Amino acid sequence: MASAKPAATAHRSDSGVMERRAERERTRRNWLLSAPALALLVIGASGPLIIVLVYSFMTPGDFSGVEWTPTFDAWVQIFFTRDIFDDTLGLADAHLSIFWRSVRLSLLTTAITIVFGLPTAWFIATRPGRARTFWLFLITIPFWTNLLVRTFAILEMIRNEGLLNTWLIKLGVIASPLQIMYTDTAVLIGMAYVYLPLMVLPLYAAIERFDFRLVEAGYDLYANRLQVLRRVILPIVKPGIVAGSILVFVPSLGAYVTPRVLGGGKNMMIGNFIELQFGQGRNWPLGASLSIFLLLIVMVALLYYVRASTRGSSHD
Amino acid sequence: MTHETAIAIRGVSKIFGPVETGLKALDNVSVDIRRNEFFTLLGPSGCGKTTLLRMIAGFETPTNGAIELDGTDITAEPPFRRPVNTVFQSYALFPHLTVAQNIAFGLEMLGRGKDEIKATTAEMLALVRMEAMAARLPAQLSGGQQQRVALARALAPRPSVLLLDEPLSALDLKLRKQMQIELKRMQQDTGITFVFVTHDQEEALTMSDRIAVMDAGHILQIGSPRDIYERPANRFVAGFIGESNFLDGTVLAAGPPARIALGGGQELSIDTADSPAAGQPVTLAVRPEYVLLGAFDAPGSLSGRITNLIYFGTDMHCHLTLDSGEELVARIPSGLSGKEGLETGAIAGVSFAPGALRIVGA
Ligand SMILES: Nc1ncnc2c1ncn2[C@@H]1O[C@H](COP(=O)(O)OP(=O)(O)O)[C@@H](O)[C@H]1O
Ligand SMILES: [Mg+2]
User: Fold this and answer.
1) Domain A90-315, architecture per CATH
2) pLDDT 10s digits, A226-282
3) Could you identify which of A25, A107, A287, B223 might form a hypothetical disulfide with B227, taking C-beta atoms 3.0 to 4.6 angstroms apart as the criterion?
4) Which CATH number fits domain B5-239: 3.40.50.300, 3.30.2310.20, 3.30.200.20, 1.20.1250.20?
5) What confidence tier does B92 reach under pLDDT thresholds 50, 70, 90?
6) Start and end of every ABC transporter domain (chain B) (predicted)?
7) Sign of the alpha-carbon dihedral angle for B200, B205, B208, B209
């Protein structure tokens, strides 16, 4: 007994050393294995972001690019314009209306995709197994096609001589074509169409997990259809709605192709405005500061949304 | 004594799928459920109990027939307009609401005042002894606690009728026994009509005022637990409720008393007025506890060989093969186990307690 004890202790410390060595070995291997991912993150995500950030504090070059003279001008220009004659600062109304349109159209797009996405996701989630896969597959089909092509397809639908107007006139609903193209409505239709799948998929995931017996429990306890929707279904599928809203709102805010094709030159959104600075505007620093500004709006919106939605779902 | 009818089921059938080829879950079922009674639907799995209950709740519409509640036809009413609440087998508690909010849900939907909701919720929490858990979410409760909340939630709006679909089947044995007693107490305290579904005959016998025994979409017998146990209407009921021995024979004389010939030249006499005519085949049922064993040569008794003796604590099961070749189980008190002649291989005389033998069909 007496001799067995120290032996056991020695054995234990031995294995302790070996364990620590193995641990170090593991750590090194983990670093090596994650190196490609880290490199990609640094080069692919942080790198460009840092360049954009640096450019936003420089002076515009004469034709393009930047001159390496640090200034806050680009950041001031986001909100203010400098009067050419007396050099005073005034609010940049044009810019503000672009920001406002972007936020408004993105919020509306999110709302529209919720309204259409909920019944769609509900429909799919309540199909039997095989049919469900089929409908989900249909939902993902648009992803196979280039965004530009899809946007032109929408254009074909809503332009003055397009399908919609032709049919409405043929049916005698309207006498002359509705001017939808080059309005905010056109942009809204386009964005809602393009981003609807991004709403349907997370909603489907949430509804698919939903216990439909709770609907019966609601009816049983005197809730009518609307009350069951508001008091039972919506609160429970809320995480899906939050996820879908983020997935739709974020790309909507930075949308470029859709407002460009369907909104024309006048109904710009932030994305188009940024592009303008790098092109005809020849003001790379302003484009850069606007990009960072957009990023900040998205982050604030996300934080707000996530905070609001988690507060609502926990009771104690 | 006259009884007021709470729920009248009038010739209700339910066919799932196409009427011609679909599955007939209920076949022309009629039953009157009395006010303030504890009524149980008892039957094997798949016999249509849940379907009938869901029809009373309003979740299924009958293919044929009508359902009346307190004298008014509610067949076409949606569930949220029926003063009927359900305790679901899965409990179906709202996972995003606390215990108290779950209980208050029905009252809120009925548009009751804030004070009333608060008072009733507190009362219900006390009734199911869940006051300490009022602020918890369902996920933080045990199965038994969830069960109580489901019960309180369904009782809170004071429905005319409470429907319970196998509410105890997910609980372990001890908790189940305890909840059986509590459920019965609550039914008596509240005076609400309970319609209780179970496939557990013991549960049905101990809790119910009346039982409807169902099989394959039909109601086979309606009666008090005692009626059903002691006077089963047919072979299915006799076999499903408690244990029964069945003996096949032929009527020698319709009587009364009727004389029945069993195989092997043995003969029995039964004091009944409704025997089939002489020459007809019959099946007799007898409970194991009414099978009496005695000396093999006792007058008027059948004789059989003891094939097995199984000890069950308070009593013993004695398996016998009669001279007619039929198998029989007798349940005898363990105190008799030392009795002479009670051993495997011995020949024993078999007789039956007066009135214990019943004709349950052919
Ligand atoms: N919605 C439905 N669609 C098709 N068949 C059903 C449906 N609900 C129940 N059934 C069938 O009806 C019969 C009775 O079911 P149910 O009432 O649930 O029986 P129990 O509750 O007595 O076990 C079963 O054969 C079952 O498979
Ligand atoms: Mg059932």
Assistant:
1) Orthogonal Bundle (1.10)
2) 999 999 999 999 889 989 999 999 999 999 999 999 988 778 899 999 999 998 888
3) B223
4) 3.40.50.300
5) very high
6) 7-241
7) positive
Written as six digits, the tokens of A259 are 């407002």
Pocket of ligand 1 (CB under 6 A): B 16, 23, 25, 43, 45-51
Give the phi and the psi of residue B20 in degrees, each rounded to 5. Answer: -75, -45
φ/ψ of residue B53, rounded to 5: -65, -45
pTM score of the predicted model: 0.76
The whole-angstrom separation of Cα A73 and Cα B182 is 77
**What sign for the dihedral angle of Cα A167, A173, A174, A175?**
positive
Taking the C-alpha atoms of residue B280 and residue B181, their distance in angstroms, rounded to an integer, is: 45
Q: What are the tokens at A288? A: 């850069």
Contact by Cβ (8 Å): B322, B248: no
Closest among B245, B330, B338, B243 to B293, alpha carbons compared = B330
Rounded to whole angstroms, the Cα distance separating B42 from B213 reads 5
Q: Which of B325, B332, B322, B320 is nearest to B290 (CA)?
A: B332
Chain A hits for B88, CB-CB cut-off 8 Å, are 213, 216-217
Q: CA–CA separation, B212 vs B37, rounded Å?
A: 13
A219 contacts on B by Cβ (under 8 Å): 58-59, 78-80
| Helix A147-158 with A163-170: angle, nearest 10 deg | 20
B15 CA to centre of ligand 2 in angstroms: 16
Residue spans of the domains in chain B: they are 5-239, 243-361
d(C-alpha A286, C-alpha B185), whole Å: 77
The ipTM value here is 0.81
The answer to whether the beta carbons of residues B325 and B266 sit under 8 Å apart is no
Q: Near ion ligand 2, which residues have CB within 5 Å?
A: B 50
B258 vs B262: CA distance, rounded Å = 13
User: Span B243-361: which CATH code?
Assistant: 2.40.50.100
Read off the pLDDT of residues A136-149 as tens digits, 9 standing for 90 and up.
Answer: 999 988 888 888 99
Q: What is the pLDDT of residues B186-196, one digit of tens each?
A: 899 888 999 99
Task: Give dist(CA A111, CA A248) in Å, integer.
Answer: 10
Cα(B328)–Cα(B285) distance, integer angstroms: 10
